[in-house]
Amino acid sequence: VHQSKLDFFCKLGYGKQDICKVLENLGQEALEDDVLKELIQMGSKPQALESQAQPSSLKLVARGSCSTSSGSKWLGEDEGDSSDYLRPIVIDGSNVAMSHGNKEVFSCWGIQLAVDWFRERGHTYIKVFVPLWRKEPPRQDSPIADQHILEELEKQSILVYTPSRKVKGKRVICYDDRYIVKVAYEKDGVIVSNDHYRDLQNENPEWKWFIEQRLLMYSFVSNRFMPPDDPLGRHGPTLNNFLSKKPVLPEPKWQPCPYGKKCTYGNKCKFYHPERPHQAQLSVADELRAKIKVPLSLGKEEERCNCSP
Questions:
Q1: Which residues, at least 6 apart from 87, have a Cβ–Cβ distance to it below 8 Å?
Q2: At the topology level of CATH, where does 89-243 sit?
Q3: Cβ 271 vs Cβ 258: under 8 Å
Q4: What does the pLDDT look like over 183-201, one tens digit per residue?
Q5: What is the rounded CA–CA span in Å between residue 21 and residue 38?
Q6: Shortest CA distance to 144 belongs to which of 220, 93, 216?
Q7: In the predicted model, is pLDDT for residue 25 greater than 60?
Q8: Cα–Cα distance between 257 and 238 in angstroms, integer?
Q9: What is the distance of C-alpha 182 from the center of its chain?
Q10: Considering just the CA atoms, what is the radius of gyration of the chain in Å?
Q11: pLDDT of residue 300
């Protein structure tokens, strides 16, 4: 009897020590109501109520708040672990700089704009590849604007110079596009460039698929870096899903039927009918047949009951 009462009140959430004290005071044959009253007078509370009474450590954040101090979450991950759900970014520095300089000037400010855009989104792995000879003083045939930005990005371990050297007065340049595609492929990241890398696509079939699926093109609009919202076309993923390792599937949007209640397609109708959400979508003819068959079947059952001995 003692064990059964102990189990009963333990299921209600009371502590074993409080239950044993009450049973010792009232005796083993005490009624459950008396034990419950004694527990309430002692001030004992079930564990579920105690957990609810404790103040929660969660803080409410205003909708639309842009404060960086609050631990905002995206796709169920913490902001500090952004590398877990955002893809690495590999930027074709020469392509971005020449595009920002209208293909006339190597504009380093364009590279800075692209890097800042991905930083604001939370990307932690950002690499920019630029040929080493861009560190040399600018010439008339290859002007460079804001060259000090390259030094600052190099100090931040973002800019990487591809090797080059001079042999008998001639500059030998390593192919920087190969570095870009190789690093992005190994890191399973995204290539930021307006170049299609057709020569590298023909060189490696794996690179061909990767370039087709992971190339992010862009535009500069009034010193604003703007990638497209649909990088792979109208029917492809959104920009957020394209840049994330864990894409979020959009919720299905049902288009209402233009015919409404006059629709005669029934369950063959591909549109949404709000007037029959939990009913089988039968055609009008099937519904009439069903209504006619019900009274006929009831009449036959009554005849059988009357004829039975």
A1: 123, 188, 189, 190, 243, 244, 245
A2: Rossmann fold (3.40.50)
A3: yes
A4: 999 999 999 999 999 999 8
A5: 10
A6: 93
A7: yes
A8: 27
A9: 26
A10: 35
A11: 47
